[in-house]
Amino acid sequence: MKFNFLQAAETPMDLLLLADPEASIIQEYLPQSKIMAAMEEGQILGVIVFLEISESKLELMNIAVYPSHQKKGIGGQLLKESIQWAIMHQFSSIELGTGTFGYQLAFYQKAGFRVDRIIKDHFLNSYSSPIFETGLQHKDMLRLKLDLEAFTDH
């Protein structure tokens, strides 16, 4: 598997919509983002999308793997490659927003992310349709943060 950077126009919207169901929100951040793809034989298996918030901070905006390639560690490899890239480019932290429950919460915490704060009613106020996972509606957003300076000490 190879990891390559893509331009926004090369990034499959159907893949991004797996992680963020609101196309208008994706279209707002995608043109300014760094997009890394996991590729095999020229085929995109998954992507991770980062937005530079400041000279020292990145925000993880989207990470998605096609269903036929899930449960193979591709998302974890994308995250690991992106963290290494961020360290090499001297970023001090990566932040992200996610729901207050679901498999993705454990995924990020295993990678070293910690809860930073909660934004109440984010999913109710920011999305045109309710977002459900395992029968529960997402309402609040957890903001998670990975301190890359502490991360590199291990």
Automatic annotation (TrEMBL):
One of its GO terms (molecular function) is acyltransferase activity, transferring groups other than amino-acyl groups. SUPFAM superfamilies: Acyl-CoA N-acyltransferases (Nat). It comes from the Bacteria. Coiled coil: none annotated. Transmembrane segments: none annotated. Residues 1-149 form the N-acetyltransferase domain. InterPro entries: Acyl_CoA_acyltransferase, GNAT_dom. CDD domains: NAT_SF. This is N-acetyltransferase.
